Amino acid sequence: xxxxxxxxxxxxxxxxxxxxxxxxxxxxxxxxxxxxxxxxxxxxxxxxxxxxxxxxxxxxxxxxxxxxxxxxxxxxxxxxxxxxxxxxxxxxxxxxxxxxxxxxxxxxxxxxxxxxxxxxxxxxxxxxxxxxxxxxxxxxxxxxxxxxxxxxxxxxxxxxxxxxxxxxxxxxxxxxxxxxxxxxxxxxxxxxxxxxxxxxxxxxxxxxxxxxxxxxxxxxxxxxxxxxxxxxxxxxxxxxxxxxxxxxxxxxxxxxxxxxxxxxxxxxxxxxxxxxxxxxxxxxxxxxxxxxxxxxxxxxxxxxxxxxxxxxxxxxxxxxxxxxxxxxxxxxxxxxxxxxxxxxxxxxxxxxxxxxxxxxxxxxxxxxxxxxxxxxxxxxxxxxxxxxxxxxxxxxxxxxxxxxxxxxxxxxxxxxxxxxxxxxxxxxxxxxxxxxxxxxxxxxxxxxxxxxxxxxxxxxxxxxxxxxxxxxxxxxx
Length: 477
Known about the structure:
GO terms for molecular function: ATP binding; fatty-acyl-CoA synthase activity; medium-chain fatty acid-CoA ligase activity; metal ion binding. The protein is an alpha/beta fold. The protein is 27% helix and 24% strand.
């Protein structure tokens, strides 16, 4: 924070340039995505009481539209070739800055950065981290998941506002002496991504499953990239069929990772590790991760429960300090000796974790507990389904039933919806247990998403439980 405030948002090169000097100056850094609207910016500035902000021409007007409602905001820095009234020129200030600077000798446990959570189940929370987040990347156990070398060139396709970018495009390569590749993509364009991977000697790539999914949907003639050796993915569930299709077309396996704004990377299918399709890998030390019940008791293998990170007797390095200015929510996630992530999963006998869904996403239909991910994975195997989101829908007999919101692929747009509903329901019955099939199906043009690109199931649930009326195609059974 500038003084006791925070700063936000920038683009990729500026983010890398700014983070280290900000860290050395003892200022708390608060990255923000370039996809934010004026409303998003207002919320972040007000709740953080940020005193300084750095952005580009794209978002400067949005900032100006809300600045009068943010009394803490004192300094606005613009990264641009143009002048803007009321803003300082970031580049000229850098050029004229004195080379002499006294660095703040920060300690490991002192605050360093705040990440806003993705906000899929409510307003984003401010997860505050200390310098241990950066230090953790130097641990040998943490470096195993990427196994970066000084000869590598890594391209992290995560938006700079999220913790994955800080880890994959800064801390991990910085620790290994690896070259970072940066491309100023205005938006995710699969053709540009593929061209870039062919043109430049990139050896490792890190991004969300949706990026690889978009590439696979384009039907490129060749995806055998000349220098690419390793691919990682995280941020949402990776579909097993996508993993297999990527491997067949590129010759490279997709390695899944799992983490949160509060934790950084906590599970991974590390490089060289056996891949179990559908699993997000094993825990990364120093985190002790267990499947726990609601009282913090450790559950046996193959039992559904909450993903918990042990915080007692010692809180591990790299885990967030707290939710800033919200001790109540900070206390709510403490569960016995564990931090309760709010995610549901199982662990097998070999220590592999299997994601089920957010606690709020679990559907309870006639006593059966159904995770949305498995149903969505089944639907994704059908050629008609471009994307889907599965939630619970109220039912007078069963309490809840499974409902699927589906966007169709172009070739199925003109198909009869009633017939297609029956076909998709039968498909899910065959692929998964029959009780998991969606008794209700609604075809939509798009799904509600957070600015991270994650589907907001919470918004769909609210609509289902009476806040909005939606027309549905329902199975009469």
